[in-house]
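Quick one: structure tokens for this chain, please?
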Amino acid sequence: GTSGGNTTDMIESLSLMEKGLINPAAMITHIGGLDAAKDATLNLPTIKGGKKLIYTHIEMPLTAIEDFAEAGKTDPRFAALDKICRKNNNLWSAEAEAYLLSNF
């Protein structure tokens, strides 16, 4: 999605990403599966944080990256995601995505 910017804003953002001046991963704060999409959409104004990344071909509750460690106490997959994200400055990454796609 967009933050309401216009085409010029989008072009500038893409240029800054291309030059490595901004990291779009910093905007992602929550990860979830298709089963989380409806509630995430309906409650978007009340869910704190930035972008909510929904993977449409998995089942996973909408979970804040900062809550992976707590969720990992009962589900080792979240513990693994927490470890991967911590290794990547607490950001979502290609490594985290690869793990998610292989394990959820």
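The chain has five helices and three strands.
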